[in-house]
Amino acid sequence: MAEAAVQVRDLRKAYGDTLAVDGVSFEVTPGEVFGLLGPNGAGKTTTVEILEGLRTADSGEATVLGVDTSRHPDRLKPRIGVALQTAALYPKLTVTEVLDLFRTFYGARGRTTADLIETFDLGEKRSSQTRELSGGQRQRLAVALALVNNPELVFLDEPTTGLDPAARRALWDIILDLRRQGTTVVLTTHYLEEAELLCDHVAIMDHGHVLESGTVKELVGRHFQERAVRFDQIDHLSDTRLASIAGVASVAHEHGEVVLYTRDVPGTIAGVLSMAAESGIDPENLTIRRPTLEDVFLALTGRALRD
Amino acid sequence: MQTLLQLTLANIRSFTRDRAAVFWTMAFPLIFILMFGAIFTGGGSANRVFGWADQDGSSASAELRVAFSALANVELRDLTEEAALADMRTGDLQAVIVVPGGYGAGIASAAQQPGPPIAIAVYTDPTQQSQSADTFRFVNTVLGEINLKLTGRGPVVVPEARAVQTESLTFISYLVPSILGMALMQLGVFSAIPLVGDREKGILKRLNATPLRRWQLVGSNVLMRLIIGIVQTVVIVSVGALAFGVQISGNLLLVAALVILGSMSFIALGYVIASFARTEDAANGMTSVVQFPLMFLSGTFFPIDSMPDFLKGIARVLPLTYLSDGLRQVMVGGTPFSPLWLCFAVLIGFLVICFAISARFFRWS
């Protein structure tokens, strides 16, 4: 097996009395998109900043591209790209000037400014000062700056937070392109649908711990063998009657919908249809869906991610 | 090296695109020089303008006019008595001199046999004491010569003009180096604000994630301020020379050394402020707290020797006192408040202390 792109073992970091990172371990395979998920304050950013060589851990081991990030950050920095949580840009420099400037930090090797402006669709704004850019343009420029040295590994900290849907999709395309080109991407996010779409592996963090990690499929499979059958509430069908349908493991209610978690989807649907027919009602909006990361997160932490 | 220069260029661009920064570092000191310069040099060295009302029109009165206009710094305006007095009331003329009709004839007869003296009317405003005295000094000088000539005797005793450089500077030549010192102080102290701003915006952290070295970052900031400081020096000295004739008489190398050392000391003070200010607003407040006492208590606008003793004590511990004092000594030969070597020593010591404090307390994120 190839050497891991990122290797984290029992990482710990405290700020005063607060344990921001409390025994975190995970591994990132070269060429994959790895997602670090969790609510604000979960310790994602601290973990990533240790990996970027910006902070030193109190204890534990963090190796990126074979380099110990606490001991030799200077060896690591030329090989990685970084987009911080807030796009930190010189407000009074233009897009072209900022890109040119950052290229000189890496000896002006790697991708050209013109190429990056083209890739990130910043052509119209090339001569605008960065303070005049929209949120999406700023984020795209921040990611472009992370790529000026053609890095082997890119860290993107909450790259799509605060963006409108179109801007978010544009960034997703860029990240998927990076994966196609074989660049390893470590991404933090609190959007679970983003992680499902982009990430090969994810680790879910909360309160400084990794609660669970694996592929999205593994995580969902580990927590939910059942599928969810949903339909609009039918008044005189009691939960007890619904629970008696073949294969139904549990019954839940969500926004006026009934959710039946079941291992036998055809049997359950047949049962629901026959009960509804007895009452002379067609069940409306009948759907089947597999549980998502959102369900996993809910099960793991007992709260929704965006609380 | 390439990185250092590019980052310096980026800093200069950011600076010149910030109108407030440009105003404080470039326009503000110039406004001081132009304003004080205009107030304290207006009138004093300009020409004396006298109204000249010749009611005689003889060759003798024309000769008298030539004698007056031959004096340096005197301009005569030929007017009637009424018109001249009207102009004097509105402040256009310092005095009015009226040569009465019959002056020429009177002179001619006085040459044959002495009679009563001929009166030349001299109007001045006695409430303007110095101007009035100034006018009579001129008039007496001219009339004395005329009288001597008429009586046919050469002067027995004449003064011989000898120039001595006195130690008291004119106000404007005191002001130019002082304002330069103030401007360099502000340039340095104000470096705290964008620095804290860059930290607040996460720019310092972002730079830290690149291979950029910290000495390159600090070096580019210092280099950019030094370049601006040199531009400021050239502008301030040029305005002083062109608008007010303040000449730099000292050693240019010493001037340059003081400008660079002074800039660096106060940039270091800016880093000290940036070490303790968490936000850009806090940095703004702290720079004001630091710069105003420096500006007013370091002898920028009036000599420290003329301050009351307790203010003198304060001035003695302010670093700007030594920069401005040194600049006055090397630029215009000002009276030393402290010896030049001490000015250099204090600034070097101050630089080292500020550097040590910021090296210990400055935070990058």
Characterization of this structure:
The complex is a heterodimer of chains A (307) and B (365). Chain A has 307 residues and is of the alpha/beta class. Chain A contains eleven helices and 14 strands. Chain A has helices spanning 44-51, 73-76, 95-105, 113-119, 135-146, 165-180, 192-198, 216-223, 239-243, 265-278, 293-301; strands at 6-15, 18-28, 33-37, 59-64, 67-68, 80-83, 153-157, 184-189, 201-206, 209-214, 227-232, 248-254, 257-262, 287-289. In chain A, the strands form three sheets. In chain A, strands 6-7-8-3-9-10 form a six-stranded mixed sheet, with helices on both faces. In chain A, helix 8 (216-223) packs across helix 11 (293-301). With 365 residues, chain B is mostly helical. Chain B has 15 helices and four strands. A four-stranded mixed sheet of chain B has the order 2-1-3-4, with helices on both faces. In chain B, helix 2 packs parallel to helix 10 (214-244), helix 7 (171-189) packs antiparallel against helix 12 and helix 11 packs antiparallel against helix 14 (319-332). Chain B is elongated. The chains are: A alpha/beta (307), B mainly alpha (365). The A-B interface holds A 52-54, 74, 77-78, 80, 82, 84-86, 88-93, 97, 100-102, 104-106, 108, 129, 145 and B 2-3, 6-7, 10, 13-14, 17-18, 201-203, 205-212, 365.
